[in-house]
Fold:
Amino acid sequence: MVTDTIQNQVRTLPRNIKKRRVQIGLPVSIHLALKEIWRNKGRFFLISSVVALITLLVLFIAGLTEGLGQGNREYIENLNAQLVVYQDKADLSIPTSRMSLATVRQLRQVEGVEAVGAVAFSNVSIPLPGGKPPLKISLIGVLPGEPGEPVVNQGQGLRSKRADETVIDAGVAQRTGLKVGDVLTVRSTVGSKEQLYDLRIVGIAPSSQYFIAPSIFVPYITWDKVRPQPLATSQTGEDPDVSFNVAAVRLNNTADAKAMSKTINNSVKEIIAVDLQTAYENTPGYSAQQSTLGLMRIFTLLIGLLVIGGFFRIQTMQKVAQIGVLKAIGTSSASIAFSSIVQIFSVNSFGVVFGALLTFGLALGLPSAVPIRFVGSAIASSLIALLVIGPIGGLASIQVLLKAEPLRALGLAS
Amino acid sequence: MAIALETQVVTKQYENAGQAIRAVDEVSVNVKAGEFVALIGPSGSGKTTLLALLAGLLRPTGGNIFIDGSPLWQMSDKDRTQFRGEKIGFIFQSSNLVPYLSALENVELMLKLNGRLDKSGREWAKELLDQLGLKDRMGNLPSQMSGGQQQRVAIARALVHEPAVVLADEPTASLDTERAYQVVQTLATLIHAQNRAGIMVTHDLRMTRWVDKVIRMTDGKVAQIIESKGEIEAYSRGSEH
Structure:
């Protein structure tokens, strides 16, 4: 019998535990938090997995935002110029803007301008061997040696305004396997017919995507010949009257861009000069795309907030009676609240780390054509946001447990 | 024996639809160290409310409560919570153990709350569980134990930190008769052996056979105090018949 055992063995509390001594183990709040997680591993792993999936989604959206953004702005952002000049009626739209060499010459006359290059944009494709789909690229016509032509890191720049040569960007080089000295065949259209052009690669520039496509750079007269055209034109020995889209302006004083844009606008008629950021933000679809993806990211974070908040609130409501018992036996509300914070933080952090590892693992297997780019600052801000939403989501549950009355332990409530 | 718990004209009054209801009405009782008291009475007589007042969980409308000489309701909320953890041991009706802690961890929790969980404290918690016949159940979670075993763990938890007072709210409510007898007898034995003051709220008069004093409440007032062993035995036997 239990009672017989007790009567034979009872003794009072040993003297040596009457004084407060150094405790073994973790503080109460952390002890309770971790024990509950450990003994309910399945439940907490489930919510961590949901956090991991949300992390995966947020990081992919962040990567996609950066990748698509870069795909649209990379060429303009890395221009060796400070201002981009448009036709004033074009409403800062590159495809709509038209500009002649005469305007370029006028821009060169403005005091404070170091150099001006004309830039023309079009799209062609590169046929790939082995039945692969052709690689769609941006065909960019530039004035050799002037702003707009990228700085090469292999080979050399364009040498004459009408040579059948090209500088390709790193993206084209990577996807085609071509190198300096090789001949690149591009496919264009004239009227309804397909036309192939051979261009010798003279240099390779860093990645310079425009309109989510890798780019090749050709002299402006070659560009006018190669670009898709409604009707066939015959080029004579004279320079054709090429119509460019925009001009790239390099300034003597690069820090003076804002003031110089006003000076240029006042000096040359029917044009508008803007800085590079304004230029790429006005690339067709750029702002809409970035704001849409930004909104998706915010909504995903909000979903995370609701999921974590909802889970911990429901869990807290289910154990109000148990919290009442803990309070009744002398556990402070602060300890109970801290215990909950430890749980929320642990579960959320585990989910975020798990999700981040999952994302980078999946990213390694993505084809290079997928426009996802993981940039430190974007990833860091997303991870911080994900780590913060957990405790914010859990605030509602902490409010519930702070309000839980110890009287409930006795089946009473005030 | 020193007085471990004392109430002086304690009153708890509620307002209901503009009418004042006295759940506890000017109750003055005391319990000495080593004394085990049963608080009995019909439903609504105020016994659980009185227990809540004694536990420092419910503020009295009037009167004073002293535990181990300290005025319970003159402390701040924070101090009272800490005092409760140090000086009072609780046994509730059922499901009062922390479900994700093992039997030993549940008992150790009281020592942890009081900053006393060192090696000797752990040994004492194990010994107490051993004394209660739970040597093989120390690592079990509450869900892996029977109701009687859970209540014995609750008894160990209520006593391990050397409280002045042990408060038990219907500790046998969810147990069959045999286990109920066993739990109350065990509780009485330990309260006497460890010189604690014990108060047990019960509606089951058969459980009074192991107590030293019976306080019967009616309509919030102390209707009768029975201290004679013979009378208490007759009281508990009478209820059996």
The helical segments of chain B are 47-54, 77-87, 103-113, 119-131, 147-159, 177-194, 229-240. Chain B touches chain A through 60 residues (CB under 8 Å).
